[in-house]
Each structure stands twice: as C-alpha cells, then as structure tokens.
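Full entry
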Amino acid sequence: MLETATSLLLALVRRAKRGGVIINGHTLTAAQTRRQVEALGRWFDFIHLGDLPRRLASPRQRPFCLLTFDDGKRNNFTEVAPELERLRVPAVFYVTTEFLSNGKVLWFDRHAALVRALGYCPAGLELEALKKLPFDDLMERMDRACAHWGIQAACEIDDEVQPMSWAEARDLGRRGFTLGAHGHTHAILTRETKARAFAEIEESLAKVSSEVGTRCQTFAFPNGNHNSELTKHALRCGATTAMTTEPMWIDGYSSLSRLPRVQLFGEFTRARIELKLALAAISGALTNPNGSGRAYRTAAKRIRRMRNRIMSCAELPVSSN
C-alpha cells in the first residue's frame, strides 16, 4: 500500500516537474547500490556530470538523475563503483584530499566510534555542538575525548571508514567516473576564517587535479555549508559546479555554483526513496540536513500532504512507467 502511494506521488511529480535530481550518498554495499539504482531507474535517466548543463537548458519529459558520493571512502572503490560500472551508471566521487593523502580517520567517524564504544554521547560532544566549532578547535576536543576514553577508530580494517588511495581514485577516473574535490580536511567552511576556507577550496581542487592528472572542475561543500563568497571562490579556482545539501529538485533556474542534492542512505527502501524524492519537489517540505540527519513528519502525513498539493495541479494521474 505504501509503495503504491509513493509511486503515485512520484509519478505526479514527474508530470509536474522539469529537470531532475542530484543524489548525495556516502557508502553503500553492492546490494544497496543495486537497490537504489533499480528504484531511481524507474523514474530517471542517469547522466554524467558533463551532461548536466545541457539537460538543464533543454529539459526532457523524463527527468534526470546524477549520482554523487562524498568523502572518498574506500567502500566507494570496492563496493559502489564496481556495481555502478556493471549497471553502466555514471557517478561523481567527491574526495577529501588530506584524507586520501594521510589515511587518518575523518573526525565524524572518530566521533561515531566514541559513541559506539561508550554507548552514549558525552556532554559537549554532540554533533551539532561540534559542527559550530572551527576545525582546529573541533579536532582538539575530539583528540582529548578519544585520549581520555582510549578510543580508536579501526580505519585499517573497515572500508566504510578507511579512505581510498590516490591510485584507486585515478583508477576510477580511467574507468569513466568523475573525481571531484570535497575540501582538504572536511572543515565546515563557514566556521573558518576567510583565508582558511579559501585555502581549503583551492588546495582541494588543486590536489585532485594533480593526482588524477585532469583538471578538477567540481566541488562539494563539506557538510553542505556555503555562502556567496565561498561559491565565488570555488568558481575562481576552476570549479564549474558546486554541490550543497538542500534537498530539492533542480531545473533551468538552478545555479551551477549552488546545486542542491537529495541525500539517500543504504537502508532506504524503494518506497522511502520515492517518498523523499516526491517531497523534495515541494519547497520547504524537507529540512536541509547539513550533513547531520533528517527531520520529517511521519510518512503517512507526508503522503497525504504531497498527494493533496500535487493533485491540485494535475488533473489526471499518470502511469509509473
């Protein structure tokens, strides 16, 4: 019943909307990758990043979908990319450059390891509190906490925590995938000084270009946080597209320097994927997660709200094919 309702909602959205969606992911198993591709492929044409300007300028009846994955975890190389390659689906992999260079665990993976080990989050280490700090202060607080409780993230044995290598990134590029920059340290740029934030963007784009051997022209803001100064600087540094985390569809009115993305997770069922993409078509229906979770009402309430609003502007239902 739920799957039928979500399919109807997304079918109505597809009739009412032009353009498409950019999907934001992180790590998936091969089976989860396949499930997401099957769910998305019912409604969307998968496109390369290079096709995006043309599809925005000349929309088609069938909307498009661009897949992106953030951070540069080795799981993207071992699980996600092989399955996408088998299914002939393109994607962009945004890598955090220092992460690939030194292999040190990203701060939020250390935080997750700490919370798992303790069974609770210590006061002052809540994610939202940490994300308000400049990167150096955040790292100092995490270093103290991990040392105090003797917590280490097992980077060397877990592909969902460990980075891919630069050799693996270059291999993805040779196989037709796009490599993008995702900051040098994954610092939240709006919490940094202007000089530090600019350097994070510039160094990240330059490092990807140097390692991969082709000019890196796309940037994803860590945690999605950005402002006009940061987007302009990314363009000055050679980026032609920049990604955020506003959960919305895009169309010909969207700015290539502030492209919204809808975040999907591996545990999502087809119905949940369809529901989230249908809701993303309504301005303000989904809360911008800024990389830190989701805030929805219950699925049933969302379905009724979406159905009523879409049905008011669509006289006839359409098939799901």
Notes: Confidence is low (pLDDT under 50) at residues 291-300, 310-321. The beta strands are 20-25, 45-46, 64-71, 92-95, 178-181, 218-220, 241-243, 262-263.
